[in-house]
Amino acid sequence: MNDYIIITDSTSDLPEYLVKELGIKVMPMKYIIDGDNYCDENVMPITDFYKMMRNKKRLTTSSINVATFIEEFENQVKNGKDVIYISLSSGISGNYSAAKIAAQEIMERHKGSKVFAVDSLCASLGEGLLVYYAAEKKKEGLSIESLRDWLDANKLNVCHWFTVDDLFHLKRGGRVSSASAVFGTMLNVKPVLHVDNNGKLIPVEKVRGRKAALLALAERMEKLVDFSKGKAVFISHGDSKEDADFLAETVKEKVGVNDILINYIGPTIGTHSGPGTIALFFMGKER
Fold first, then answer.
1. Above 70 in pLDDT, residue 177?
2. What DSSP string runs through 81-125?
């Protein structure tokens, strides 16, 4: 039986030190600012990226293509490793579809190899949380097939709850109407959203004011958290560390956790969520 490697996208937003600790591989994703190409692989300081967003630079992103997946998967197989790739949600990206095609191609080229693509139905540190648990399960000795099955059985327990500071980024992505963005901004309305069972971003409620939105995230966790499925709690933020720290302290008080991982939302997700986004991830009874 070959050893195997866990691969994911840079949209998992895991800090570099944890990527090394977990022994996983992260594939960078590309983004474009005013016509110039960049990628998530530490090309630009993250604070510079958010400064560009605040300065209204034009940003777009792209998925990883089939050829890139084939090259990566084949390199791993030639080095004697099977592959399990955990993708950004198919509800917001074409990565999973491309990876599935590439995985089939590699298994046909290299008989006996195992290359599995798993749709996380997650994003940002929600995807990162699922990858974190996958790496822990691998260390416990799960086979590649058992890990694939565990991921499929547990990914809908990864809860994503978040709020944004600027409704116009959601408007650009078609999540709210132009009128809602204008009047919501005027009235200081902050949406509370989550990622649903189809891996899509869904508005759930609206509250007045930033602090109320942050408290609403912690309240959602109180209702849904299930520590029997895992105790890790992750928070990602769009260049808004003070608010992330406030949420972390609130969560610690409400549900009694001690350690919470906090990291930036990377450029690919940040392009669509904007500066000031705060997201909370944990294992729950349901999404």
1. no
2. EEEEEEESPTTT-SHHHHHHHHHHHHHHHSTT--EEEEE----HH
* DSSP H/E element including 249: helix 241-255
Locus of tokens 């909370």: 280
Q: Yes or no: is domain 3-155 CATH 3.30.565.10?
A: no
Query: How, if at all, do strands 30-33 and 59-61 pair?
Result: antiparallel
Model confidence pLDDT, tens digit, residues 16-59? 999 999 999 999 999 999 988 888 766 789 999 999 999 988 88
Full strand arrangement of the beta sheet holding 158-163: 201-208, 189-195, 158-163, 278-283, 234-237, 261-264
Q: How far apart are CA 212 and CA 68, in angstroms?
A: 43
| Class (C level, CATH) for 157-283 | alpha beta
Sign of CA dihedral 46, 14, 255, 202: positive
What does the alpha-carbon distance between residue 72 and residue 115 come to, in Å, rounded to a whole number? 11
Please say if the pLDDT value at position 174 is more than 60.
no
CB half-sphere exposure, 183, CA atoms < 13 A: 6
Residue with the larger pLDDT of the pair 174 and 248:
248
pLDDT in tens, 53-98: 999 888 889 999 999 999 999 999 999 999 999 999 999 999 999 9
Biggest alpha carbon–alpha carbon distance for the chain: 61
Q: Where are the domains of the chain?
A: 3-155, 157-283
